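Lab notebook page, bench 4
Experiment: in silico fold of construct C2
Operator: M.H.
Input chain length: 148 residues
Purpose: comparison with the prior construct
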Amino acid sequence: MQTIYWILIFFGTFFIMEFNAWFTHKYIMHGFLWNLHKDHHQKNHNSWFEKNDLFFIFYALVSMGCFYLWNYEDIWFTLPIGLGILVYGMAYFIVHDIFIHQRFKWFKNVNNKYARGLRNAHHMHHRNTGKKDSENFGMLIVPFKYFK
């Protein structure tokens, strides 16, 4: 029975992270922490690293904290939570940083309806380089109007 709970917690955490990423992006990154996120929209730097990458580090620390609680405090459910955050972070990095922004030149030739919709939605978000009035979407849920 614990295995079922473990699987449900893992997938629940993964999907909650999609909402969390949308919420954080809309209200925190485009809100009071805009100074850390701004360099992702306004490319006025020559560095591969962006201040925006600090958000990845934050979630990595949360995930590692869950692993610590599982390993040293024997709180079993923090392992699937930590793994759900980790796997979501890896998926987000692959989709957002590698597939959409091409920080690594992989997946350049992927051209299906979902991929085009995801890229179109993200490019609409980046049309506005300011803090306000930018459209925000999650990694998995993209409005159908962007699928062409």
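Observations: Residues 2-105 form one domain. The mean pLDDT is 83.
Next step: discuss at group meeting.
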